[in-house]
Design goal:
497 residues; mainly alpha; three-stranded antiparallel β-sheet
């Protein structure tokens, strides 16, 4: 993509025709949506995208409220990441950890990075709960004597396996004068090694590809488990595969009929209540993704091409952050981030344009065109989309581009490291901002899609702007939006006396 590093915002005298033309350069959105006769409701030209200026599209995406988002409070001192541990100590350790020996342990960990220190704190909280359960008392009633007793340490040895837990046990043993003592049985400082699983080499290739794309650990496990579920079923239920070990199943012999039988097996499991609809839906999705990978990478025929997906209700009602809560979150970034500009842009891409975490990680300088005010999005399946830039997001990206970052991607060099950093920092900033919303980064995209749905745009437009593949997901968002709109209208009709 042609790169123009000028950062001067377009003139306010830009004509309507120029604005429309600028928007038409968004090939993915314009070419697909403009061909539809009635993608928006016909009751007004304001909803006919063929007559809609780029300004209207930008307002649909960003909205006035988002342009005013986060006027950074200059009264805050920017203390950077080093201040997070101090916040964690004052707001979590002091009020929640009363056992002095554990406080001493955490005191020695204060020099760690904020995320590491937070994990140490959570591990200590787990030990406090372990001791409370062991002694059948409240956490507030525990003392050093309780956690340094031989009986409790032996109990901890028998119930702990993770590396951090082992280190805490070693610390307790030293404090209790029991380290190396024969009084404590079966203690090994090394964490219990994971069982080695023999994996089909092509499945291994697939998981490595997903890892290179920056997929989360949960996603990797989900794909691995679901593809393995298929191979296990084939080995146990299809004669031609029964003599093969899982790691040696000949994938070229898997036909569409085998996959259809497996799909029927999953539907029966769901019907009997053994699996949820979401579980079987995701299983089919992972299998289709696996065979698409084999086709693209090795030229294998794709037996899943005509395999039907299984629809499942994926919408889970979530409370969304208010404008005030969003402002607080971005204020926290401004105060505690070592790179507030970059991190605010990263989270704005999710909130203003619906980027997924892995899509943010993949953004490079070449994806940003300041001349046309567009940004390229590398979506699932290798597809590329263009969306317009405006307001605060455009201004911040202009500043970043002027700095000419030399990293491979805008946020760093390693996709997995970028995603982990975004994910971990989100949890830290949300904690400081006093957010209690469940889940993680996807909350921002969820907020973006919900706001669009609440504006009443039709499914085709929502599909393009949100870059959805599954129409059932779109219909759920629109259904919920319509329900809330109807409910609000009915409530407003009530007269209270």
């Amino acid at each position: 993509m042609e790169q123009d590093m000028k950062t001067t915002p377009p003139s306010s005298l830009e004509t309507e025709e120029e604005t429309k033309e600028s928007f038409r350069q968004n090939a993915s959105f314009a070419e697909k949506i403009l061909q539809d006769e009635s993608i928006f409701a016909r009751h007004s030209d304001d909803y006919d995208i063929r007559k809609m200026s780029r300004g209207r599209i930008e307002n649909m995406l960003y909205g006035v409220e988002r342009q005013e988002l986060t006027p950074v409070d200059q009264s805050y001192e920017q203390i950077g990441r080093k201040g997070i541990n101090k916040w964690l100590w004052g707001n979590l350790v002091e009020p929640n950890i009363s056992i002095l020996v554990f406080k001493g342990y955490l005191q020695h960990k204060l020099k760690q990075d904020a995320w590491g220190f937070y994990q140490e704190y959570k591990t200590i909280v787990g030990f406090v709960q372990l001791a409370a359960d062991f002694y059948q008392t409240s956490a507030g009633g525990l003392t050093d004597q309780h956690v340094l007793s031989q009986d409790f340490i032996q109990h901890a040895v028998e119930t702990s396996s993770k590396s951090r837990e082992k280190k805490i046990i070693s610390f307790l043993l030293k404090r209790a004068g029991l380290y190396g003592s024969f009084q404590i049985n079966n203690f090994d400082i090394n964490p219990i090694p994971r069982k080695m699983t023999v994996v089909h080499p092509k499945v291994q290739d697939y998981i490595k590809q997903l890892e290179r794309e920056g997929k989360s650990r949960h996603t990797l496990q989900n794909h691995f488990f679901n593809v393995s579920r298929l191979l296990t079923w084939l080995s146990n239920n299809v004669q031609i595969f029964s003599n093969f070990e899982l790691q040696a199943i000949p994938l070229l012999q898997i036909k569409t009929g085998h996959l259809e039988d497996f799909r029927l097996h999953l539907k029966k499991k769901a019907h009997n209540g053994e699996y949820s609809l979401i579980t079987v839906s995701e299983c089919i999705y992972c299998i289709k993704s696996f065979f698409r990978f084999l086709n693209k990478r090795f030229g294998n025929p794709d037996p899943s091409r005509k395999l039907k997906s299984i629809s499942a209700p994926r919408y889970r009602f979530r409370m969304l952050p208010s404008q005030e809560q969003l402002n607080t979150f971005f204020d926290v970034i401004a105060r505690y981030s070592d790179d507030p500009l970059f991190e605010q842009v990263a989270f704005r891409l999710m909130l203003d344009l619906g980027f997924r975490g892995e899509e943010v990680a993949q953004v490079s300088l070449e994806d940003i065109n300041l001349n046309t005010r567009t940004i390229a999005i590398h979506s699932k399946g290798g597809e590329e989309h263009l969306l317009p830039l405006a307001g605060k997001l455009y201004e911040d990206l202009s500043v970043i581009c002027n700095k000419h970052p030399t990293t491979k991607y805008l946020m760093g060099n390693d996709l997995k490291a970028i995603q982990n950093k975004l994910r971990n920092n989100y949890h830290l900033y949300a904690l400081i901002a006093d957010w209690t919303f469940p889940g993680g980064l996807h909350l921002f995209r969820h907020t973006f899609i919900t706001r669009l749905a609440n504006k009443g745009i039709l499914p085709q437009a929502l599909k393009e702007l949100g870059r959805f593949k599954k129409i059932d997901t779109i219909s759920l968002y629109l259904h919920i939006a319509q329900y809330h709109s109807t409910l609000t209208n009915e409530v407003n009709k009530l007269h209270y006396h």
